[in-house]
Q: What sequence folds into this?
């Protein structure tokens, strides 16, 4: 199936796929271990696809997905070096999101997720990295991307990721004495907070 000339607000998806491939090659050239993940479904869904995928998921088949490619760093200790390459060498001027993902309460890891944008190349890129729940830290990227400041603070509140070196790690949305991390899968919402019902 051939994608149309313009299938997203930022142009053809192939531009973003190629941007991820170029970033992966730049990381590898710099000695940064990375895995490139590319979608295995076409940009647009085919007729009847949802039923086929539901059956496949029920039968335990290989996972299929559409959307953007992403890069997964093998070592969270190389995050700052990777982000510096993206900013200085590949032209990703903006970070548009920094967050976490908890896919499963039983999983030992969260994912740290970074979404970047290159206005020069009209390309976007997603970088992910494992964060062990029992040693939950990532280096802050605020020194490279000042827009990460509030994103990291919010992610810290809701997922419990400590962003080492963050200039102002105060809470943004939750009270300072809030217990737990509400976006983790094992979070149990309290019945009340200082006498105020949470139900």
A:
């Amino acid at each position: 199936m051939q994608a149309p000339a313009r299938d997203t607000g930022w142009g053809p998806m192939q531009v973003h796929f190629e941007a991820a491939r170029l970033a992966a090659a730049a990381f590898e050239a710099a000695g940064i271990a990375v895995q490139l993940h590319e979608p295995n479904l076409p940009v647009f869904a085919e007729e009847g696809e949802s039923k086929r995928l539901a059956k496949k998921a029920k039968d335990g088949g290989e996972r299929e997905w559409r959307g953007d490619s992403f890069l997964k760093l093998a070592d969270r200790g190389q995050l700052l070096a990777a982000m510096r390459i993206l900013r200085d060498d590949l032209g990703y001027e903006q970070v548009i999101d920094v967050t976490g993902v908890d896919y499963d309460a039983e999983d030992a890891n969260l994912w740290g997720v970074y979404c970047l944008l290159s206005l020069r190349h009209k390309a976007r890129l997603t970088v992910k990295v494992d964060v062990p729940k029992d040693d939950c830290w990532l280096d802050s990227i605020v020194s490279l991307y000042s827009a990460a400041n509030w994103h990291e603070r919010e992610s810290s509140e809701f997922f419990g990721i400590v962003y080492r070196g963050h200039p102002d790690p105060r809470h943004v949305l939750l009270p300072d004495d809030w217990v737990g991390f509400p976006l983790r899968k094992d979070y149990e919402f309290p019945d009340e907070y200082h006498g105020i019902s949470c139900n």
